[in-house]
Design brief:
alpha+beta, Jelly Rolls, Immunoglobulin-like, C8orf32 fold, 3 domains, eight-stranded mixed sheet
Length: 606
């Protein structure tokens, strides 16, 4: 009986692999990712892959080369083995001239990262049916990171027949580990003086090639592990460098004083200094982890006129501190991956400043880009850990609130069919362009479609703070609606900073991964539109509402005589749309995108 079960399982596994590989360009027949912590504190990562090439595309575009980035100041790369077995069984050793070191692209134009290396391994003797073998080890010196840690995605760009993740630590230490998205535990054994954890996977699907997966690929299965316990240990390691003292020199003081002298309001000073750093200090795009999170001092960053995201954040904090702002750098990572009792620095991928102002409370801002709003709302699914030297700060979770768009418009068409009227606008959370309004309210014109705001005087700000802005806008178009065989159509104006900004124009019928939205949203439009008396409406009465696990969408159209009232509302409750809810989400969005339900159509009376 047991033998029969094994046969059935083997056949099932073979069928699964065949179905996976049927349309694949290549398959990883075997993949090993091995992480080791030595007793002296040094670490190593070994990668072994056995990759069978199925199509010409696989070796011409996908896997003709392997790229390995490393920092020679902290790390050492060793190629253990590299060869190709051709379709006829011939073994071709990868020649010495197939190994070439170049500067990583993200380190270009950076004086501080120009020592970085990217080993380019060009795989030779590739053809359909050939198999690439590559085995290398990357060793890191003690102190490269605050501890032994890893963030391993359990998928690759092609299917994997056999995958092993191996973690080795000294037998007297403990490993904190968490598997996300899979119910798979490790096999644990003792080998000599090491404790060895082994996770085995068979028939791993290729990573989906779908949009809207989010930059962190939060729906992908992954293994997190670390030997670090608690937040304080990691943050102290990170901030225990001179850069976090935020020291300023006389030249930087004079520059800041000059900017401050031209501003009268606190918020204007804040935004002026931010803009100067964003636009005038070069953003070096390499990952700060490449340099083991070692940062230069703000003075050094200033003199070099460039820095990575961490360094620019420290520079901006220094300048704002001198300008009497309470500005604290913070590291940002997904809340769903965060474990306060076993912190893993590899999950964090962003840096922001948390600035306390006297007039508007707390504002979250970037040192590498200008945003229309405080970042706490668009980053609400993240955790923020303040980086203050010598001070242990608790992780911060942003205040949650609805990201709302609420428009009430009254529009009339004159005899020339030029629309005009007023719009009452309420915007909250991530949809609230608070910082844009403080800087230049005229820029709000770009956030209304149809180019219906003629000048800045048409925009009246009734109330504006970080949480909510309320405006009264006079709209007017100088262009008449064109005639199309006796019919006229006019698209309802929308806020271009909401759902429209996400550019979701089409959704496939099926989806392999969860869908990740920028943020939950509530978007509502209520319009009353009046036509000249000698025109008649074509729109029919309509009232439909869909409600499911994802949210709600509703459209109501009420034509009467030469007047029409249209109410539209879209409410998406969650940022993550799970596969099980995708069809319902797709139905909602297709309903919302139906142009027939957002267009006024009319003609002249007979």
């Amino acid at each position: 009986m047991k033998k029969n079960c094994l046969i059935i399982l083997s056949l099932f596994f073979a069928h699964f692999l065949f179905s996976q590989n049927e349309n694949a360009d290549a398959i990883f027949e075997k993949f090993i990712k091995e992480f080791t912590l030595e007793a002296d504190g040094s670490t190593s990562y070994r990668e072994y892959k056995q990759l069978k090439l199925i199509t010409q595309f696989s070796f011409n575009r996908l896997y003709g080369e392997t790229f390995i980035i490393y920092n020679p100041e902290f790390q050492n790369l060793k190629i253990n083995d590299a060869y190709t077995v051709m379709a006829d069984g011939s073994k071709v050793i990868t020649p010495p001239n197939a190994f070439n070191e170049v500067l990583p692209r993200d380190a270009a134009f950076s004086a501080t990262a120009n020592h970085m290396k990217e080993m380019v391994v060009t795989h030779t003797a590739t053809e359909m049916g050939a198999t690439i073998f590559l085995d290398y080890t990357l060793t890191s010196a003690k102190g490269y990171l605050p501890g032994f840690m890893g963030n391993v995605l359990i998928q690759e760009s092609s299917p994997i027949a056999e995958l092993e993740v191996i973690v080795r630590i000294p037998s007297d230490q403990e490993l904190n580990h968490r598997m996300i998205g899979l119910r798979t535990g490790p096999e644990i054994k003792i080998e000599a003086n090491q404790k060895v954890y082994v996770w085995k996977f068979n028939g791993v699907q290729a990573s989906p090639k779908e949009p809207l997966q989010g930059k962190n690929q939060l729906s992908a299965p992954r293994l997190l592990f670390t030997t670090v316990i608690g937040v304080a240990e990691t943050i102290n390691w990170l901030t225990n460098q001179q850069a976090f003292e935020l020291q300023i020199n006389d030249e930087m003081k004079a520059w800041t004083d000059n900017l401050r002298s031209k501003q009268t309001e606190e918020i204007e000073t804040l935004m002026t200094i931010q803009k100067a750093v964003v636009e005038n200090i070069v953003f070096e795009r390499y990952n700060p982890e490449w340099l083991a999170y070692r940062a230069r001092t703000p003075e050094e960053i200033w003199k070099s006129n460039g820095g990575n995201k961490l360094e620019k954040t420290l520079l901006l904090a220094t300048l704002l501190k001198y300008a009497n702002f309470n500005a604290t750098p913070a590291i940002v990572g997904p809340k769903s991956l965060f474990d306060e009792k076993a912190i893993n620095l590899t999950i964090f991928d962003d840096f922001v400043l948390i600035v306390n102002t006297k007039s508007f409370g707390t504002i979250y801002m970037s040192a590498v880009e200008i945003s229309n709003q405080s970042l706490e709302y668009s980053l609400a699914q993240n955790i923020f850990i303040p980086l203050s030297k010598g001070i242990s700060r608790a992780p911060v979770e942003p205040v949650k609130m609805d990201n709302k768009i609420n428009i009430k418009g009254t529009i009339s068409f004159n005899e020339e069919l030029k629309p005009s009227g007023t719009m009452e606008v309420e915007l909250t959370g991530a949809n609230n362009p608070f910082l844009l309004l403080q800087n230049d309210k005229g820029k709000f014109k770009s956030l209304i479609s149809n180019k219906m705001i003629k000048d800045d005087d048409a925009i009246s700000i009734k109330n504006s703070n970080v949480a909510k802005s309320e405006l009264l806008v006079k709209v007017e178009s100088t262009e008449s609606i064109s005639d199309n065989n006796g019919y006229y159509s006019w698209q309802l104006p929308v806020i271009t900073g909401g759902f429209e900004k996400w550019r979701i124009a089409y959704l496939d019928k099926t989806r392999q991964s969860n869908l990740f939205l920028p943020y939950p949203i509530v978007e509502k439009y209520s319009y009353t539109i009046t036509l000249p008396l000698d025109y008649t409406l074509i729109n029919k009465r309509f009232n439909e509402r869909l409600k499911n696990n994802v949210g709600t969408v509703s459209v109501e159209i009420k034509p009467k005589g030469n007047q029409i009232e249209i109410n539209r509302e879209l409410k998406l409750n969650t940022q993550m749309i799970y596969q099980i809810d995708y069809n319902e989400f797709r139905d909602m969005i297709n309903f919302w995108l139906d142009k027939n339900l957002s267009t006024v159509v009319f003609k002249k009376k007979d």
